[in-house]
Design a protein that fits this description.
globular, 20% strand, Rossmann fold, 2 domains, alpha/beta, two-stranded antiparallel ribbon, 13 helices, 7-stranded mixed beta sheet, 42% helix, Dehydroquinate synthase-like, alpha domain, homodimer
Chain lengths: 334, 334
């Protein structure tokens, strides 16, 4: 078992990394109260039930799998359910699922009575290495992702790698793309683990090292004023690809990283992507990706801040003209 | 002009108290950006327009007057409007109105892109002395008040007493009930200003002293863990009365304070209420008030924490059995 402590002043919390932690969630989390366990119908039912069964008063609330559940009407329905069940300020919400469930559950917990305890038990690689920690919660609105939400830290995060056993390989790989992202910008050793191959063998170390990178970044920049942008490495073009549909988030990030690394590093990165069965290009018109990015650029005007990686474990942040991204998009479109 | 500085660490801000501040809002607030000015149709139109006209890109959004505007659908509509207008993280929301507008605008600002700058320009006595500062934002859900929201501090509050000139006397008096509440629990001099009569003459001092009480309480207990409950003095029974309809919030608080003061103090309190033309009893069946309180008690179980006032400027906090409130309700029902 490893415990990482997130140092965020009054909002500090522990990340417990342990195979089998789900079975004894009640030892790590205060479940001696009303507990809403939020999950989605793509997560094995027994995961949420295992947590609810350990609570004094546990209720499972299941939303449909997918981004569409990150909506204000869904947010409102969950809050209504808690109200109906008489949840008080002293009760708690637990997320058992991937990024969608975590983002939604966190926003619900932040808003119910202006904030009640929130725990996260991520069940995908992507959420275990990235989205479950850092306190970014949100829902989507009018087709724009994560536009409504809160910075709200969990009270504890349980990372149980056994939960990944039920995932199909494609989902594992898309999550590993985010771990690879952390290695590229901030941890050469993590990058080298990917290069060595044998991913399954290195899984525990990959997830631990990724969490250590994320922890360090969030501690330095909780509210995403600056440094935290390195977590968006690969995401600028990645989000544009994602808007065009058909690919998982991590797959889009994988492709989106390619133009953002140095020419020397690029073949090494592509080698890793091939080994992970992640795409290294997309069959989409570059104009379509560019248009989607324009819609999604969150009002920075004609400029955008991008992170680039010259060598594994090092990054540069640059403000570039938005249109300068166009040739980069061409690099990864067929 | 008076400036009170709220000391809340990274969330600190100034409260500027000045007659005529609205006209020069742009000197105090950074309006050199996109600014959504939220108001309601009960507030004189020129107030919001005056602020919007001082902004680089100012938009007035008007909601219907009344509690019904504090809803998740209304919250969602305002966010959609901001999205459509291309608001970025660097833009701002200004509330120009009473408590409803402030609570709604604050929650919107807290959630848009996980938080953008929020300013409050309260236009009622109640919001000037109480609800505009302290960072409690919320909307209602399923008939329960303030059940969904955030603790989110404004970047600045402008208190312009000239804005009160257009209020009718009943609205002024209900706001003064909250100021009287602050005097009772925390400031004997403020209580004595009420006892002296001549309220109009003392208005500037009443508002300043009330804000000083509120500031001190919020600084000690930003997230309402303990001390801040003294601001709920009179509210336990008051909310029960309010749920029965027909009276303003401050009027209900006025009545709700009566059973919560000592027998010696009670006649003095009632004398002040009569002078302010505030009610000192209600013509409602006590059972109805009791039922409403049961529904509203926010899950504290069979007990509730109430604040009582033995002498002006002093308070006691006690956890009492819920049913012990019943004879207190009988005291103020006809």
């Amino acid at each position: 078992m490893n415990i990482l402590h997130m140092n965020l002043g009054a909002d500090s919390y522990d990340i417990v990394i342990e195979r089998g932690a789900l079975q004894k969630a009640g030892e790590y989390l205060d479940l001696d109260r009303k507990v809403l366990v939020l999950t989605d119908d793509g997560v094995p039912k027994q995961y949420a039930q295992t947590v609810a069964a350990q609570a004094k008063d546990g209720f499972v609330f299941t939303v449909p799998q997918g981004e569409d559940s990150k909506s204000i009407p869904q947010f409102s329905m969950i809050l209504s359910d808690m109200l109906k069940r008489g949840f008080s300020r002293k009760d708690a919400v637990v997320a058992v699922g991937g990024g969608v469930v975590g983002d939604l559950a966190g926003f619900v917990a932040s808003a119910y009575m202006r904030g009640i305890d929130f725990y996260n038990i991520p069940t995908t690689v992507l959420s275990q290495v990235d989205s479950s920690i850092g306190g970014k919660t949100a829902v989507n609105l009018d087709g724009v992702k994560n536009i409504v939400g809160a910075f709200y830290q969990p009270k504890k995060v349980l990372v149980d790698l056994d939960l990944l056993d039920t995932l199909d390989d494609r989902l594992v790989s898309e999550g590993l793309a985010e771990a690879l992202k952390m290695g590229l910008t901030s941890d050469e050793k993590l990058f080298e683990l990917f290069e060595k191959g044998n991913i399954k063998e290195s899984m525990d170390e990959i997830i631990l090292r990724s969490l250590m990178v994320k922890k360090a970044v969030v501690e330095q920049d909780e509210k995403e004023q600056g440094l935290r942008r390195i977590l968006n490495f690969g995401h600028t073009i990645g989000h544009g690809i994602e808007s065009c549909g058909g690919l998982y988030h991590g797959e889009c990030v994988a492709v989106g990283m390619i133009p953002m690394v140095s020419d020397e590093l690029r073949p090494r990165l592509i080698g890793i992507l091939v080994n992970l069965r992640l795409p290294s290009s997309v069959n989409v018109n570059p104009d379509e990706i560019y248009e989607a990015m324009t819609h999604d650029k969150k009002g920075e005007g004609d400029y955008v801040t991008v992170t680039t990686v010259p060598r594994p474990g090092e990054f540069e942040m640059n403000r570039v003209r938005f249109e300068d991204l166009y040739p980069m998009i061409q690099m990864i479109t067929k």
